[in-house]
Amino acid sequence: MPKKQSSAGQAFEVSTRVARQALVRRYQRDRNAPLTRPLRIYTLDPSVSDRIGGVATVRVPYEKLEPGPIGSLFKVISDGAPKILRHQPLDLDDPYLLLSSGLRPSPANGQFHPQMVYAVCSLTYAAFRRALGRDISWATNDDSADEPLRLIVRPFGARVANAGYSREAGDLSFGFFNAGKKRAGFTLRDGIICTALSHDIVAHETTHALLDGLRSLFLNPTNVDVPAFHEGFSDLVAIFLHFTYPEVV
């Protein structure tokens, strides 16, 4: 971007990130469309019983979705799922799912995993938008100027006990791994544990992407406090989201 001259005679630059804000094209709701879409999620993770608030029906901002689901802000891609969880792309606009608040939460249902990440990612974005009063652009690379700038979400990103946000790949990647030999809670011995089913992990990684969209230089670890801020703030957002679920509080 060429430098411009200010009225005071000092050179300044207009960052390309100013124009990137227009690349996020949030869904424009028809006046007859509903305000929200009810979806069921785990409020913590599958190890917490629904009798003590482990499952909630949340109100996700409504938008028309393509199978995946793919909306105006997030594109869920389920490539790489373990064989037992492989499934067709989830269509949340299916009439039966619209009437039943989406799929019933179940770690054994591979189609529920995309529902979980889409719902929590959307709720996290909505919390930021409500607080700031404006849309937030992603800091990821724009591959197609003809489509809205979406953040890719991979509920089966890799066989690893971790999850992460990547600006270069433009995605959130949630790992999965096998449990240990000892049974813990509702987890079976050698069963598959998916980080995409952890509410706090999904909200945490989505917050990393949102912070990067708001302050891109905060990914540069100029001192130890910079990455610490990213991690601490992301943890707090995940915790505070719990207070928006009546089933939990």
Written description of the protein model:
With about 250 residues, this protein is an alpha/beta fold. The protein has one domain (about 25-245). It has helices at about 15-20, 95-100, 110-130, 200-215, 225-240; strands at about 5, 10, 35-40, 55-60, 75, 150-160, 165, 170-180, 190-195. Strands 5, 6, 7, 8 and 9 form a 5-stranded mixed sheet that branches. A two-stranded antiparallel sheet has the order 1-2. Strands 3-4 form a two-stranded antiparallel sheet. Helix 3 (about 110-130) packs across helix 4 (about 200-215) and helix 4 (about 200-215) packs across helix 5. The longest helix is centred in the middle third of the chain and has 21 residues, at about 110-130.
Low-confidence stretches: none
Using the alpha-carbon principal axes, give the shape: globular
Q: Give the helix/strand class.
A: alpha/beta
**Major pleated sheet:** 5 strands, mixed
Average of the residue pLDDT scores: 85
Overall tally of structural domains: 1
Head-to-tail CA distance between termini: 49 Å
β-strand number: 9
Q: Give the ordered list of helices and strands.
A: EEHEEEHHEEEEHH
Rg, Cα atoms, Å: 19 Å
Strand content bin:
15-25%
Q: State the helical fraction.
A: 25-40%
How many separate helices?
A: 5
List keywords for this structure.
about 250 residues; about 25% helix; two-stranded antiparallel ribbon; alpha/beta; globular; 5-stranded mixed β-sheet; 9 strands
